[in-house]
Amino acid sequence: MPLPKAELHLHVEGTLEPELAFELAARNAVELPYADTDDLRKAYAFEDLQSFLNLYYELMAVLRTERDFEDLANAYLERAAAQGVRHAEIFFDPQAHIARGVPMGTVVEGLWRALGRSEDSHGVSTQLIMCFLRDESADSAMETLRAAEPYLDRIVGVGLDSAEVGHPPAKFREVYEAAAALGLRRVAHAGEEGPPEYITEALDVLGIERVDHGLRCMEDPALVERLVRERVPLTLCPLSNVRLRAVDVLAEHPLPAMLDAGLLCTVNSDDPAYFGGYVADNFHAVHDTLGLSTERMRELARNSFLASFLDHDEERRARYLAEVDAYEFTGN
Ligand SMILES: [Zn+2]
Known about the structure:
Layout: E1 5-7, H1 18-27, H2 37-43, H3 49-59, H4 66-82, E2 85-92, H5 94-98, H6 104-115, H7 118-122, E3 125-133, H8 138-148, E4 157-161, H9 173-181, E5 185-190, H10 196-204, E6 210-213, H11 221-229, E7 233-236, H12 238-243, H13 255-260, E8 264-267, H14 272-275, H15 279-290, H16 294-306, H17 314-326
Parallel strand pairs: 1-2, 2-3, 3-4, 4-5, 5-6, 6-7, 7-8
Bound molecules: zinc ion.
């Protein structure tokens, strides 16, 4: 039985496995420029963030109907449950779909067909976080927020993703203010490829409650001290960092130093179909390669629930934490 955990940094579009991509392509009569799943799997061996993003957006063409989004989310939830996930806060990228003529309602309602039943069907509680693409304009982000207003009973918060460098958080000040006024929680990718200043700016200007990635905070001791003092969680994605060259090799990942510094770190999978592993695979990788003790692994699992947006249901959070505390490690 895997260690119980929450997953807080997971892009649902990044869970599209080659087999499902071909199934949906056939269903929707979309032609993919790959001969078969093996051929497509070879394309998953990209070099950096941009080459990953190119494939990520190309494959989204197969997602057209509510049923497609439902099938995508169900496939993730089934895998997540098998990896010990009890609670998942799931990102989606509406602008990438709206730009292809797929309306917000199709995306949200389709995902909800899976998420709304997830506790019964998979034993996983869920929340949905809508991300803005930071390489699109601030106006486009604001239009996206307005398009989401009829669906806010389905959406707990907003995030910021895609190509980081050259797109500082302050560009999205107004849309984050509008999101806060609507009662939405706020997170943002910061300090993955971008500098530590982007983390500070996301905290101060966007009012974020959690930093996605954030590993480059380690270059700024004053920032580390602040993140520790304010108990700001970081959602780290170790296998993603290796695949996208944020670190050269996993053995050089700063996670142990970050935990030693007292940072509230969590471990997540980011885009698991593309980055070589789901969340438990990330846990195993850091345990094996970075030599983290079982008590450190338990701390990571505890942190995932402490950092989750379960404030409306503290009883549930306490139940999940009790499961982590009672967990017995058996040789892995
Ligand atoms: Zn991400």
